[in-house]
Fold:
Amino acid sequence: MPGNDRILDMGGGPAAFVVLTLCSYGDRGDYQVLPRQAVSLDLHAILDRLKAAGRRAALDAGTRLLAEIGECRLMLYSEGRAVMESVVPDTSDAAWEIYSCMLAPCADP
Amino acid sequence: MIRSPFAPFFPSLPDSGSYLDSAAKTLTCSAALEAQQSFYREFDCNIERGIYARSAMASDMVEGARTEVAVLLASSPERISFAPSTTHALNSIALGLPWRAGMKVVTTVLEHHSNFLPWLALRRRGVEVAVLRASPDGFLDPDDMRKACDGAFLAAFTHASNVTGSVQDLGALAAAASSGGAFVVVDGAQALSHSEVDISGLCVDAYAFSGHKCFGPTGTGALFISPELREALDPAILGGGSASDSSPEGFEAVKDPPHSALEPGTQNIAGILGLGAAAAFRLGMDHDLRRRHADEITARCLEGLRGIEGLELHGPSGMRSRLPVFSFSVEGLSPHMLAMRLDHEYGLMTRSGNHCAPTLWRTLFGRSRGGVRASFHDYSCMADVDLLIAAMGRIASDARK
Structure:
């Protein structure tokens, strides 16, 4: 696998993702997360978990999850593709940490 | 679906979805692909100063490409030097001129970073850099340019905006800028992509463009340079081909042909041949058909986008002096999320953000995060326009709820 892949085990084995930098503003970063292979996310389950953690989140038309995690605003599709905006600090590691915590159980999504 | 009459010449035109990012990169024409492959299959050698026939033939082919590019600009081959991109070409000018503290450069709020940062960077050397404003729909005023260029050494501006698609009156602006003696440097990356450009008779000292915005390969471009500007330029990047002789005491810079010193080291030969083939392809196209096709796309897209409630179009609202390049935003929806929706849900490949022109976005439209740009080209078809309008209608409607 390419060296910049991010690996996440969501229970069904490891899945690879890439985090791509988007045009951003100031000291906040905007990123896109793309799965290498198709994944199928349960947006309702992720929504419930985010809400249980006190995050602002909603399903838009049943197909897009919109959420605010800290200063980051994101849009997630069930195929695993996401746009993440205002990631602080402006690093792909920070973006991945938010994304991976949202998908896989962690202490504070 | 009725395809563009030019579609058969672009093998990478997607079968599904719509490629609407031509302002970032045009699709590559078959002729450019074949020229590059042919070089590696049949010639595959270095050019210039090679005694063997293969090298001589490859050198001759590169000069043929130079001629095609010169014809594209209505210039002459000795005035054309190849460069890896518009960015590289413009930087080669900014880095090669004899700047002193107190000299003045004029650029504009419309510029892409490639024609903005190289000039701003001169402030570190004490050069005064004035930034000319533009009208709300993205046009420069020749009178403002004339006043701003009073006492200026150089003026650098774009022929057409990569954000608004507005096409400047190059003749009037160049005349105004040069009226006080300033060198005139023009970023032609967007304009030449779509339009016939004739720089003969204009007060233009440099005109730069990229191959990847003219159906050619990435890593290619060219720079027209006037004899006067070439004389003032002391090339910043030196190497093979830069000098006629050298010794520990120094070197004798090569002067003839004029482009030699601006093309140090081994060039992207295959890319240049691809660029030449793309230029030849462009020259052979039916220009009236191109213009009609672009006008039809522009008219339909303008009408459709203007009719969408909640969509703000950033740039000229009319047909006059514009390219089929459309930037827009929807209140309550960030540019990246809008572009993601267009791609993921509709297969529309657009570009979001500030398009390397944050000053333009902030100054003209008050938007720090930019917008979404849909850019069409000769291979685009009406179905692409209709899909964009339908998608934007639905998304803007969602955003109003």
Notes: Chain B touches chain A at residues 334, 336-337, 340-341, 344-345, 352-355, 358, 368-370, 398 (CB under 8 Å). The first strand of chain B starts at residue 18 and ends at 19.
